[in-house]
TrEMBL record, chain A:
Protein name according to UniProt: Transcriptional regulator, TetR family
Domain HTH tetR-type positions: 6-66
DNA-binding region: 29-48
TM region(s), chain numbering: 151-168
TrEMBL record, chain B:
Subunit field text: Heterodimer of a large and a small subunit.
Binding sites annotated in the UniProt record for [3Fe-4S] cluster: 218, 236, 239
Residue span(s) of domain NADH:ubiquinone oxidoreductase-like 20kDa subunit: 15-154
Residues annotated for [4Fe-4S] cluster 1 binding in this entry: 15, 99, 141
Domain Cytochrome-c3 hydrogenase C-terminal span(s) in chain numbering: 173-247
GO CC annotation: [Ni-Fe] hydrogenase complex; cell envelope; ferredoxin hydrogenase complex; membrane
Pfam families according to UniProt: NiFe_hyd_SSU_C, Oxidored_q6
Family: Belongs to the [NiFe]/[NiFeSe] hydrogenase small subunit family.
Name of this protein: Ni-Fe hydrogenase, small subunit
Lineage: Bacteria, Pseudomonadati, Campylobacterota, Epsilonproteobacteria, Campylobacterales
Annotated [4Fe-4S] cluster 2 binding sites: 178, 181, 202, 209
GO molecular function: 3 iron, 4 sulfur cluster binding; 4 iron, 4 sulfur cluster binding; electron transfer activity; ferredoxin hydrogenase activity; metal ion binding
Length: 196, 293
């Protein structure tokens, strides 16, 4: 029963993500999401008590999704250089296959902080994802591949670059497919972070 | 009157810091009613060092202070030989201080092959392995006088002391110095301290405090019955551990802002998750001064 409810919640989050991406966050309403799933609005509230709660659950869902993939990379016995490439590859792959996820992260989570101020303070709702990025950095410094520096300087560089590329891609500005930039971007990021 | 327990306090390569710490024991008069030193380098005792090394004087406990090297002599006799002679005779051997236990600061000097009695840092040695069962390690730089005295009373009263892998009595070394630290709330909520002597904030994140992975009772059995390093505003140096002294005692080694050494038994991924959660709290009373305002 619990599993069924979880599956339903996931379906709602996926539908909401798609609507947020096409209609925008503020213009999408709970009745819109319910209608897209052919659910009653009353039933919808059984799963999420408000749109803000739904918004927070979605960012947690994305964080867990990306965090799990990064964890698999972190647990591989490969060099930091290879890890860097794999992380970028997975991030761009997600942006291609599930653009609404990355779009939500960039356009809604980072741009509408007021929605996420309660029970989503700091990095609480993106903990799984940030933890794996921290582990990637920490292990890189520990084995001597990466330069020791302030975490946010490195995090900003890494995520800012990826976010920028996904944004340009979303706006159809990039001349090539996003995945074709993986090699160059991996090289640039690693070069900027490495200890040499 | 119950017979006094006889102790031979032998100093190897030492700064006598443990002796000085022991002299601060607040109930010395009572202690000396129950114990006597057949020899002590500082306290008046019945025999001279020359008599100790040239005869075999009866005693029940051998205390060794200072690091040990085959080349080192006392009274013209190699310290190895003196230790072996007396170790055979006594009921118990105590290595007092981190030098006698793990090599400590003298191991870092140029003195040849210097180590503790049974350990070279955390590596087990075999020179005195016949006496492993009768040795108790009281590590610390210096030792806490109450830990030494309480251990001696336990021996006198034949109380069984359970010891850890480094032969340290668990009663005093099973917990970490973090246990009993008055700054634990600051540790939990990741609020750092930025000035030595300040009474608020945790010193683990930036200032090298090793309390979360150092075994000792400093915050439970207070020094001079009133204080400890962390209570006074100085980070724990980890002086009871085989790794003492580390480099950069006032600095926390970090990799991209993450402490390289995490609290004992804490998995890195779990630590980061917890840290991420606790850092999100902004607790007003921890952000401002409570006592130092």
């Amino acid at each position: 029963m619990l599993k069924k409810k979880e599956n339903k919640k996931e379906l709602i989050m996926q539908a909401a993500l798609e609507l947020f991406a096409s209609k925008g966050f503020y213009t999408t309403t709970i009745p819109d999401i319910a209608a897209s799933l052919k659910m009653s609005v009353g039933n919808m509230y059984n799963y999420f008590k408000s749109k803000d709660i739904l918004a927070r659950e979605i960012i947690k869902y994305i964080s867990v999704y990306l965090g799990q993939q990064l964890r698999e990379i972190n647990e591989q016995d490969i060099s930091t250089k290879e890890k860097t490439r794999k992380i970028i590859e997975i991030y761009f792959k997600t942006a291609s296959l599930k653009p609404e996820m990355i779009d939500y992260f960039l356009r809604i989570y980072l741009s509408n902080r007021e929605v996420f101020k309660d029970s989503c303070e700091g990095m609480l709702c993106v903990n799984e994802f940030v933890t794996e990025i921290m582990i990637y950095f920490e292990e890189g410094v520990k084995c001597g591949d990466l330069r020791e520096q302030d975490f946010f300087s490195a995090f900003g560089l890494f995520m800012g670059y990826l976010g920028g590329m996904v944004f340009l891609n979303g706006e159809n500005i990039l001349p090539k497919d996003l995945n074709e930039y993986v090699d160059d971007i991996s090289f640039n990021i690693y070069k900027a972070l490495c200890s040499e | 009157m119950e017979k006094k327990m006889r102790i031979l306090w032998l100093s190897a390569i030492t700064c006598n810091g443990n002796t000085h710490s022991f002299l601060n024991y607040p109930h010395m008069e009572q202690f000396l009613d129950d114990f006597e030193f057949i020899y002590h380098p500082v306290i008046d005792s019945k025999y001279s060092l020359q008599e100790i090394v040239s005869n075999e004087i009866e005693c029940e406990v051998l205390i060794i202070e200072g690091a040990i090297s085959e080349e080192f002599q006392r009274g013209g006799v190699p310290i190895f030989e003196i230790i072996k002679n007396y170790s055979k005779r006594v009921q118990k051997i105590l290595t007092v201080g981190t030098c006698a236990t793990f090599g400590g600061i003298f191991r870092e000097s140029d003195y040849k092959d210097t180590a503790g009695m049974h350990f070279d840092q955390d590596r087990a040695l075999h020179n005195f392995s016949d006496f492993l069962d009768k040795t108790i390690s009281i590590s610390g730089c210096p030792i806490h006088p109450e830990v030494l005295v309480n251990t001696l009373y336990a021996i006198k009263k034949s109380v069984l002391l359970r010891v850890d892998n480094f032969l340290r009595p668990k009663e005093f070394y099973a917990y970490t110095v973090h246990n009993g630290c008055t700054r634990n709330e600051y540790f939990e909520y990741k609020v750092d301290n930025h000035k030595f002597g300040e009474l608020e904030g945790c010193m683990f994140y930036d200032h090298g405090c090793q309390a979360p992975f150092t075994h000792g009772s400093c915050n439970k059995i207070l020094w001079n019955e009133v204080n400890s390093k962390t209570r006074a505003g100085v980070p724990c140096f980890g002086c009871t551990e085989p790794s003492f002294p580390r480099d950069n005692l006032f600095n926390t080694k970090k990799n991209m802002a993450i402490p390289e050494h995490l609290p004992l038994g804490v998995n890195k991924r779990v630590y980061l998750t917890l840290a991420g959660i606790t850092k999100a709290f902004k607790i007003d009373r921890f952000q401002k001064k409570i006592l130092d305002d």
